[in-house]
Specification:
283 residues, alpha/beta, 2 domains, five-stranded parallel β-sheet, two-stranded parallel sheet, 9 helices
Length: 283
């Protein structure tokens, strides 16, 4: 059993990954997002436009209740990032406990280990259409047009504005050298999927994803995870319904109250669907 309770939930940042108007399920204050650079004022919420740079961490240390960052499969990197956020809080005269650090990711949950292997194998040799689709999504995340750049030349670092966080750029590169890697190599690496059991990607069964979440709590003392991206209500149900059921049913120490968590989840999923339907009607 874990010595702490991990928060597992869905929070859509209204700036970088949420719907127009902004909405935070079960959140009384907006988080700081390491992938978000724009700001919006709200008298009841703390600022959320920070990144992983020293300036961004300093701002988060002084103002944030929740700091969001792109999830890593490496427990050491998670621990190091948490330490940097907590150090920034201490420098501003706050307690590390004043800031919750949550890592955002989009798991691809499948029904069996065999299906996970098939999904990974099918992604190993992406065609140009898949690469362009991958770059389109990255363009949205990075607020940078990558989709229309030539594939077979190195990516010019100058295409990224100063507002783009280094952590987001590093996530795009996946360890490749920006000075020599072509955009095709970068997009191919990003399009390829991996098994979460091998810490090579986010594909796995609900139990495997749950095991990863629990491990991050045990090894990296992580506060929790958020699911993010271009989430459709159907996709939200596919991810959360199975995963939360596994976590609660296994009596893991990731949810402080399983019955209450499942009730809250149902309410939030219904609200997501309602808002999505309302937006479609106004378009």
């Amino acid at each position: 059993m874990l010595g702490r309770v991990l928060v597992l939930g869905l929070v859509l940042c209204p700036v970088c990954c949420g719907p127009p108007g902004g909405w935070y399920p079960s959140a009384t204050r907006a988080p700081s997002c390491a992938g978000c650079s724009r700001r919006r004022s709200s008298p009841s919420r703390r600022a959320r436009a920070t990144g992983g740079s020293p300036r961004g961490l300093g701002f988060a240390g002084a103002n944030s209740d929740v700091q969001l960052a792109v999830a890593s499969l490496d427990s050491e990197k998670v621990r190091a990032y948490r330490a940097s956020v907590h150090a920034a809080a201490v420098e501003k005269g706050r307690s590390p406990a004043d800031i919750k650090v949550l890592f955002a990711f989009t798991p691809e949950i499948v029904d069996s280990s065999e299906e996970a292997d098939r999904v990974v194998a099918a992604s190993l040799h992406p065609d140009d259409a898949t690469l362009r689709a991958t770059l389109a999504k990255q363009s949205s995340d990075l607020e940078t047009d990558l989709e229309n750049l030539p594939l077979d030349v190195p990516l010019d670092p100058a295409v990224f504005g100063q507002h783009v966080s280094q952590g987001s750029i590093g996530s795009l590169l996946g360890g490749l050298d920006i000075a020599t890697a072509t955009l095709r190599e970068i997009a191919t690496r990003k399009a390829r999927k991996g098994r979460i059991t091998e810490r090579a990607g986010w594909v796995g069964t609900a139990d495997e994803i749950a095991d990863f979440i629990e491990q991050q709590g045990e090894e990296a003392d992580n506060d929790g995870f958020l699911f993010w991206g271009d989430l459709h209500p159907v996709g939200v149900h596919q991810i959360l319904d199975r995963l939360v059921r596994r976590l609660a049913g296994a009596h893991r120490a990731l949810l402080s109250n399983s019955a209450a968590a499942e009730t809250l989840l149902g309410q939030e999923l219904a609200e997501i669907a309602r808002k999505a339907m309302a937006q479609q009607k106004t378009r």
